[in-house]
């Protein structure tokens, strides 16, 4: 019985990011009722955006030291992501907002995924190290999601011209 449960758990964890729902509620093992959640309120799924920089708004419920990061990718680049930045979360409301960059002029008429993630300390450190290196070197290669992502919310938008 334990073997079947372990196989089912592994199968769920191995799902590609495109199968995640708009809002994923994750609970750390043995954490009891304390859940971490994250969601994106803006932009709304399926919307069109006519700027290469888009403001993302959402909300997060954290248990402790989780960090909220925004990521983006053109959908045909899955499963890789471009980390955009860590965003501050209002401690009372749980709301956050921050900009994401959606490619360049060559990416007009493409679909993009915008993600907000809750990262534990290890994942946050990996994302921050990537971001610092990219900012100082200009090397913005996409990366896999690091281990330690506690929650993930994704919306798909289409980049268009003005």
Automatic annotation (TrEMBL):
Give start-end of the signal peptide: 1-26
Signal is among the record's keywords:
yes
Keywords, A to Z, come to: Signal
Query: Which domain of life, per UniProt?
Result: Bacteria
Record protein name field: DUF2271 domain-containing protein
Q: Lineage, please?
A: Bacteria, Pseudomonadati, Pseudomonadota, Betaproteobacteria, Candidatus Accumulibacter
């Amino acid at each position: 019985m334990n073997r079947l449960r372990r196989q089912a758990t592994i199968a769920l964890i191995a799902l590609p990011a495109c199968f995640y729902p708009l809002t994923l509620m994750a609970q750390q093992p043995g954490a009891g009722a304390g859940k971490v959640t994250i969601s994106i309120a803006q932009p709304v799924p399926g919307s069109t955006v006519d700027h290469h920089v888009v403001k993302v708004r959402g909300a997060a419920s954290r248990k402790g030291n989780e960090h909220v990061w925004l990521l983006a990718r053109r959908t045909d680049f899955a499963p890789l992501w471009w980390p955009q930045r860590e965003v501050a979360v209002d401690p009372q409301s749980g709301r956050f907002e921050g900009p994401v960059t959606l490619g360049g002029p060559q990416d007009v008429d493409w679909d993009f995924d915008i993600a907000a993630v809750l990262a534990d300390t290890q994942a946050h450190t990996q994302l921050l190290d990537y971001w610092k290196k990219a900012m100082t070197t200009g090397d913005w290669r996409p990366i896999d999601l690091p281990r330690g992502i506690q929650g993930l919310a994704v919306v798909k938008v289409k980049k268009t011209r003005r």
